[in-house]
Amino acid sequence: MGTGGKPADGGAGATPDGVRAGVAIHGTGNCPVVAASTAHEGPITGVTWTHAGDTHTEEFRARDPDAVDGAEGVPEPASVVDLGDERVYRYERPRDGTCACRVIEELDCPIADARAEDGVLLLTLHLPDLERLRDIVSALDGTAERVEVRYLVEGAARGDGSPDRTLVDRGRLTDRQCEVLRTAYRMGYFERPRDANASEVAGALDISPSTFAEHLATAQRKLLEETLAGN
């Protein structure tokens, strides 16, 4: 404890300066849950896992059993319990050193939430600083086609305890990129669970899902360059 009963810097009562990040991992071909999500209506949620020896055991919740049973790449998941509107599945497979979640865990980063939707692995991470986020993105470079930071909440504070906010120049975005972001936000694309998927937002914009994804990725990259600059 510091003087006057106040916690010393870095103590339990100190103001944290970490970040909360939403990361989308595209092209994880070795993830059975992601494979199942390609045919599943809505997200597959409650993804958890454990390791025992050389065996990786994973569990997840799905609302559409037929989509899970018919998905390619899922190693015979066993139905564990029926919860009415969704079913809990569990499967086992050999431990895989290229599994995205394991790569992140090996960097000593717990995963706060994991889900899969439309063939994309969606993770929520609580990290001590932006440098750790860069480490994760770099480590995933060889295990996925593309890693996208979908949102970033920075809780940094200066020494006097006041917020350290980052100003973002929205002028770097084109009118179309702003429209894509606004429409996606208005329709609930960034909510968890989502109120609208990529196809629905693309339809509202009268563009293809691939064009929507391209505009969204470009806009997010520009905003992240502004947010992370100088950190």
From TrEMBL:
Domain HTH bat-type as annotated: residue spans: 173-225
Domain (DmsR-like N-terminal) ranges: 16-154
Classification via InterPro entries: DmsR-like_N, HTH_bacterioopsin, WH-like_DNA-bd_sf
Keyword Hydrolase included in the entry's annotation: no
Keywords, in A-Z order: Transcription, Transcription regulation
Pfam family, one: HTH_10
Entry keyword annotation includes Transcription regulation: yes
Name of the protein in question: XRE family transcriptional regulator
Source taxonomy: Archaea, Methanobacteriati, Methanobacteriota, Stenosarchaea group, Halobacteria
